[in-house]
Amino acid sequence: MIALSLAEIAEVVGGQTHDIPDPSVQVTGPVVRDSREAGPGSLFVAFAGERVDGHDFAAAVVEGGAVAVLGTRPVGVPAIVVDDVQNALGALARHVVRRLGATLVALTGSAGKTSTKDLIAQVLRRKAPTVFTPGSLNNEIGLPLTALSATEETRFLVLEMGARGIGHIRYLAGLTPPKVGLVLNVGSAHIGEFGGREQIAQAKGELVEALPEDGTAILNMDDPYVRAMASRTKAKVIFFGESGEADVRAENVRLTDTGQPSFRLHTPSGASDVTMRLYGEHHVSNALAAAAVAHELGMSADEIAVALSEAGSLSRWRMEVTERPDGVTVVNDAYNANPESMRAALRALAAIGKGRRTWAVLGKMAELGDEALAEHDAVGRLAVRLNVSKLVAVGGREAAWLQLGAYNEGSWGEESVHVSDAQAAVDLLRSELRPGDVVLVKASRSVGLESVAQALIETGAEGEVSAR
Fold first, then answer.
1. Which of 144, 333, 405, 416 could form a cystine bridge with 442, CB 3.0-4.6 A?
2. Are 331 and 439 in contact (CB under 8 A)?
3. C-beta of residue 229 within 8 angstroms of C-beta of residue 240
4. Confidence label for 396 from pLDDT (cuts 50, 70 and 90)
5. Beta bridge partners of 130
């Protein structure tokens, strides 16, 4: 964080200082909520949760070098006390962002946010110092913590914004007002909470509504819900997509023999060829979105193409491809799942596994509401249409729907199977995998199927292990 005294912080957040001998002492390190990350010069934000109360760690973090604690009660060590820690954290982030000379880029969408954010960061940091959201910390706590990690040297601040309802993105954009706003797509993720795609579009579009007149909205021309958001902003609009009318577009899209996308990138400043290290054709749209941001911020087509071609995955469990010594390929995409990302992952599996035996180890897609049965059934059917060799549906009712969809689409019989849990999937795979097989593992985060992928990787390296 930019250096601020405890007195300044207390004024910004409307807090009272307690047990602070010298209010002019500055916070020069990070602002953290995990006591294990607190170190010299840091500010520890104490949240009181259902199981753990951060205030209980106050003495330990100060002893470890933290300058003070931001909490809701005195803790016997230097502290700034406020009524609401989350509101205080947001106020501090808003203050710091206003003082920064950085250009703030915000993005949202139903699918692909984190992968696209990682691409944008890897492209922009070739031009200037860039700070970006780690992993998927895109909510009312993670977003301000990311903003507070910026320093005086930061020139680009790339923030992922998530939403579970109307008004969420408006709130986040109020904390960290963006100059560039990117909307990727409107899909089915969290449709059970929103109530429909129209409501999702309303929520995602709050980002473009937050842009200033001298800002830029970057919108997906291939998604009608996103394309329509152009009418909701007075900012400049740049369209990306595979449409020939898009300002930033891809031509001659193909997949390499290993399932990595290659295409000709066109921007208003020129064209250049891209061959990505990431897997799956769905990354073309993500790359175009990143290219549109980079173009708007002054990078040439050649610079963007080189950066996209060299970019990798920065966030775990997202199409992580591991080749085992015995020739089995494990694709760990188990961080999360929705209908759009599930379909993209299955298509990537088909491309990566062309000419090989393929396995789709799939679990529940959460928060689909009344659409859950139809969407799980459709994913099971798609696996058949893509000629996936084996489907292993893991879990309860939703997994049964996956398996039933596959069975009804192709009368698969033994080619689709429903197992109760991760360990059962590991046991099955351990006994049936052969050298050369490709295994995709994917489900919503709550299912925890990353344990299956990890067990398979460790099995190939060290012998038999269990999912844990």
1. 333
2. yes
3. no
4. very high
5. 156
